[in-house]
Design a protein that fits this description.
The radius of gyration is 24 Å and the shape is elongated. It has a five-stranded antiparallel β-sheet with strand order 1-5-4-3-2, sandwiched between helices. α10 runs antiparallel to α11. The longest helix has 28 residues. The protein has 16 helices and five strands. By secondary structure, it is α+β, with helices and mostly antiparallel strands.
Length: 350
């Protein structure tokens, strides 16, 4: 099917312009994912504006670059500026519909059918793209429009986003919110759910690049941009920690405690310190740590600690407060979205 498309080499200036756009969009998207993962219910007021700005810009730029390459692959030329500006604008749903209807090509593998179905039928993706579209078109200056009494159409995208978040939670999650040991897991669940949807979306588009559906030049462009997204499959979604790229994560001091000889003596001789090694190979549920073995410890039947590669981390909130330890989640030692509740329970039972 792809053989009938016109093949003309892209001139250098336009090629490098596309390279810059794809590079920019990938960075914006990854930073947006990182800012979603940075959010916590401990914040008095979550700062939604930053991930909204990053993701709305990143998705728009990626899809417009994709459409340019798809149009070039089919017709041997790039679209007119009015096509992107006037017909498609900043509407992310409209951009995706344009891709699916005109530039989403079958590469004759089972994964294509899965990706195509997801892009066309997933209601959560449509709702999230709609919220980000509203932000890009109307809501960036929502407060100023409110202040000045502007008659311009506007919408409070934060409220729409919070309503989406609320749909993800169940009664057990609301119970966790009241528990210092588990409340951080609630936003992990939300951010993992949303990032997973967006990863599916981006990877479905990225595979068009790496499977040569958009031409050799597009495939070459993907080597530096979106190639890693194109290699994400079912077992990979929601597992990557994007926070390390964000300024907030880089600048937050990490209070890591490397175990000392005295710590080891305490563990061995103090009768109120109970510990146990746990191996991934012996654990029959979803393993939350990047390392394959950890040591859990309960001190005085109250403070739960986990040792990973010779460093202590706080398993529960009371240990974090008492010993000023990082949680394994904040230190980037656990897979986001996988609960540590089992390990806290095992430690308490020691």
């Amino acid at each position: 099917m792809l053989g009938k498309f016109i093949m003309i080499k892209i001139e250098n200036t336009k090629y490098f312009a596309l390279l810059r756009e794809l590079n920019t969009s990938e960075k914006l998207i990854e930073l947006g994912f990182g800012e979603l993962q940075n959010m916590s219910f401990t914040e008095d007021e979550k700062f939604y504006f930053l991930p909204f700005q990053l993701l709305s810009q990143g998705f728009e730029r990626m899809m417009k670059a994709y459409i340019c390459l798809g149009h070039y692959q089919k017709y041997g030329k790039f679209p007119e500026g009015t096509y992107l500006r006037n017909k498609l604008g900043h509407d992310l749903e409209k951009l995706l519909d344009e891709i699916v209807n005109n530039y989403y090509f079958d590469y004759t593998r089972p994964q294509f059918e899965l990706d195509n179905k997801f892009l066309q039928t997933n209601l959560d993706l449509k709702e999230l793209l709609s919220i980000l579209s509203d932000f890009g078109r109307f809501a960036r200056y929502y407060n100023f429009d409110l202040i000045t009494g502007s008659s311009k159409e506007n919408t409070d995208t934060e409220e729409s986003w919070k309503a989406f978040e609320a749909k993800i939670l169940d009664s057990e999650d609301y119970e966790k919110l009241a528990d210092l040991n588990f409340n951080h897991e609630v936003y992990q669940k939300i951010s993992t759910y949303i990032v997973t949807i967006f990863e599916r979306f981006v990877s479905a588009l990225s595979r068009q690049f790496i499977f040569n559906c958009l031409g050799q030049e597009a495939k070459a462009l993907s080597v530096a941009n979106f190639f890693d997204f194109g290699k994400l499959y079912e077992q990979d979604f929601g597992r990557k920690d994007y926070r390390y790229q964000t300024t907030k994560y880089k600048e937050t001091p990490k209070n890591l405690h490397k175990r000392t000889i005295l710590d080891e003596i305490q563990r061995k001789v103090n009768s109120t310190y109970k510990s146990r090694k746990v191996l991934k190979s012996e654990y029959d549920k979803d393993w939350p740590f990047y390392e394959d073995e950890v040591i859990i410890e309960c001190r005085e039947s109250h403070w739960c600690v986990v040792t990973i590669n010779g460093f202590d981390y706080a398993l529960n909130g009371s240990a974090k407060s008492r010993y000023k330890l990082e949680s394994p989640h904040d230190a980037g030692m656990t897979i986001l979205g996988v609960s540590l509740s089992d390990f806290i329970s095992m430690a308490m039972k020691l």
